Amino acid sequence: MTGEHALLEPAATQWKEALRRTAHDMYHVPEYVLLDARLAGGEPAAFWYGEDDRQLLVPLIVRDIADSDRRDAVSPYGYPAPVSGAPSSDVAFWERACRSMVDTLRQRRIVTVFVRLHPLMDTPLDTLAKFGTVVRHGETVSMDLTVSVEEMWRQTRSDHRNHINRARRAGTNVVFDDWSRLSEWVEVYHDNMRRVGASDYYFFPCDHLAALHEAVGDRMHFAVALQDGEVVGGNTFFEHEGIATGYVSSTRRARNRYADELLYDEVRRFCKNRGDTVFHLGGGKGGRNDSLFEYKAGFSPTRHPFHTWRVVTDLDAYRRLVAERSPAADPDDMTGTFPSYR
């Protein structure tokens, strides 16, 4: 059996129809992919495959490869795994969809695909591995919002609880969805990005965050921490089908100020009150179990493995690119930097 397939633009009706039939997260909606592609300097797209009432969708950003007639594709920021109305146990459907993706992208001269999988979603890793390489990185952390507030507090590490209490005693308070304070917080955020030496991509501009909020409306929120009227921290996050997900957060660096822990506590209470069932905090930098992961792990005992999926659609073209641009790299090693010609 062969289904329909296409590489879609954000306005395509098949994109929205696939999402209507499929459990998904904010990273899969076309408005999100469109705005993230503008930041990344690529073309927003999604591979779509359909058989009757079963569909598969993979959001992508398609990028030019400099001085080449080839292109490659990468996931938008976040966890935009392949999503489908077909369960992972329907191996035959997933195999047909993946094979169609590889063929379709190769015909479009797209040499490689790098996809971040969603730690909270059921994805058939064994099936994906037949069409590429699945790499396990570290773990991500989520908070179970179905338990009581008291239980969430018990699950919180003692040093975080202490810091949250100290922040409240210092008069720090958190206000939700006062978007008039966004530009003040973005200055705090950019200061932190400069301090940690982040790449240009992570300096999300105020205009991007405002445009994203305008595009998705009440599915995006902004929590701002204030002390004596001064913006000392902020947290942007999404809500989608019961999943709350952190997007960008940062606090002003200062001794004995614990706005960051307070923001996490207030955001989880806010999301619980709105009926969300889980708050996904994500993991460490690059998916590693590093100090950032350990910090997030102090809020909840719930862990999820994080994987990426690396696909080469045209092995000969890929080998040529690696030989030309990264001759010291091993083109057969798909587990390190991918694609290794970049």
The number of distinct β-strands equals 13
Main β-sheet description: 13 strands, mixed
The total number of structural domains is 2
Q: Label the overall shape.
A: globular
What would you note in describing this structure?
- The protein is an alpha+beta fold and 342 residues long.
- The chain folds into two domains: 4-138 and 306-325, 3-Layer(aba) Sandwich (Aminopeptidase), CATH 3.40.630; 146-276, Gcn5-related N-acetyltransferase (GNAT) (Aminopeptidase), CATH 3.40.630.30.
- The protein has eleven helices and 13 strands.
- It has helices at 13-20, 30-40, 91-107, 125-129, 149-155, 158-169, 182-196, 206-216, 259-273, 291-297, 315-325, and strands spanning 4-8, 43-51, 54-64, 71-74, 83-84, 110-116, 133-144, 173-176, 220-227, 230-240, 243-251, 278-283, 302-312.
- Strands 1, 2, 3, 4, 5, 6, 7, 8, 9, 10, 11, 12 and 13 form a 13-stranded mixed beta sheet that branches.
- β9 (220-227) and β10 (230-240) form a beta hairpin.
- The relative contact order is 0.15.
- The model has no long low-confidence stretch (mean pLDDT 94).
